[in-house]
Design brief:
Blueprint: H1 2-14, H2 18-29, H3 34-40, H4 47-86, H5 105-119, E1 123-124, E2 130-132, H6 133-136, E3 155-156, E4 163-165, H7 170-179, E5 184-193, E6 204-214, H8 219-234, E7 241-248, E8 251-262, E9 269-270, E10 276-285, H9 287-292, E11 301-308, H10 309-317, H11 330-336
Parallel strand pairs: 1-5
Antiparallel strand pairs: 2-4, 3-4, 5-6, 6-11, 7-8, 8-9, 8-10, 10-11
Length: about 350
């Protein structure tokens, strides 16, 4: 037995390969292994002989199993050290050439917008996509059966009409005013939903709204805020805005805001003095809305605005059809998408390094 154990232990000691080590294990402890065959002979022995032989075999199995385990750990460590020494990577090498993924234009533009408004002192606010009638309509001065509700083309979630997919991100403004004491300065981006589908409308789209509530904000502040935003977003100082009277139940006075643009030679360009394009809606928050949120309209006032993020992406990056945003075509994404490692900042440029076309 001692000769048998020593022979197996010598083989274990001399092996330098995990596969060979496993073969030694099988030949010694497997179903047809040397020690296993020895165990089968115990039945032919007398009780005294069986006791002595059984103890010796158990000791032998423990020695061999321990030697196998220690050798296996050693060989695995040596193999790992070898791989670590040979399988190296230069972390300083640029990774951009091998990047296949792209940031969606909507995600890119949303980051650009939030970057600008963060620098202007606005906080980010968010709310649920599924809203109740109060926050989506009534608190925003949409009374029951009011004709303005027909403008929204709403997806109703139940027969009562009390639960809807939000048609705008304005409910976030209501929730903020209900839970935060003025002064308030927020932007609220998110998905919105309406029953509409063509080149410039989709059933689900992205919108961002801004809200400022304090004791002294006026229409001039609204104009200055939007003008500064447009200059930063379109990355040009040659921006002009035009405000036209309009109607929204939640603002009074209300205005449509147009941006100066040029369409010469079939090319769309943000430029003053050439033409106009409607871009967003805005106005001073209606006193009824302020009152519905538990604030005193005699003491507080402010402005609000809302713009489609998808529309801004189309204008800035020359995307002709809004429906393409949601089709998931990888060729489209490769053309209009953005490199994921380029983060937009106001100081280094929103899209100078980010856009694939740049």
């Amino acid at each position: 037995m001692d000769n048998l154990i020593n022979d197996i232990l010598n083989k274990i000691e001399q092996t330098s390969d995990l596969i060979a080590l496993d073969e030694i294990r099988v030949s010694a402890l497997g179903k047809k292994g040397t020690l296993t065959e020895q165990m089968k002979t115990l039945g032919t022995m007398s009780p005294e002989e069986r006791k002595i032989a059984g103890q010796a075999l158990n000791v032998a199995k423990e020695k061999i199993a321990k030697a196998l385990d220690e050798k296996k750990q050693l060989l695995e460590k040596l193999e790992l050290d070898k791989r670590l020494a040979t399988e190296t990577i230069d972390v300083s090498m640029p990774v951009r050439p091998v990047i296949e993924g792209r940031i969606h234009p909507v995600s890119q533009v949303m980051e650009e917008i939030l970057t600008i408004f963060a620098q202007m002192g606005f906080d980010l606010a968010e709310g649920p996509d599924i809203e109740d009638d109060w926050h989506c309509f009534e608190a925003l001065n949409f009374p029951k059966n009011h004709p303005a509700r027909q403008m929204q083309a709403t997806f109703f979630m139940d027969e009562t009409g009390d639960t809807v997919l939000r048609t705008h991100t304005s409910p976030v403004q209501i929730r903020t005013m209900e839970n935060k004491k003025p002064p308030i300065r927020i932007v609220a981006p998110g998905r919105t939903y309406r029953c509409d589908y063509d080149m410039t409308h989709t059933p689900m789209f992205h919108q961002i709204e801004g809200l400022v509530i304090d004791k002294s904000t006026n229409m001039g502040h609204l104009k200055g805020c939007l003008l500064e935003f447009m200059k930063k977003f379109f990355e040009t100082d040659d921006v002009s805005l035009r405000f036209r009277p309009s109607f929204f139940p939640f603002t009074e006075p209300s205005a449509e805001c147009d941006v100066g643009c040029s369409r010469e030679n079939g090319e769309f360009k943000i430029e003053s003095g050439k033409g106009w394009m409607e871009l967003l809606g805005c106005g001073m928050v209606h006193p009824n809305v302020i009152k519905n949120c538990g604030l005193d309209p005699e003491e507080y006032q402010g402005f609000a605005f809302g713009v489609g993020i998808d529309r801004l992406a189309m204008l800035k990056y020359g995307i002709p059809d809004l429906r393409s945003f949601f089709e998931g075509d990888m060729r489209w994404m490769k053309h209009y998408g953005f490199l994921p490692l380029d983060v937009p900042t106001v100081t280094s440029g929103l899209s100078f390094n980010a856009g694939v076309k740049k």
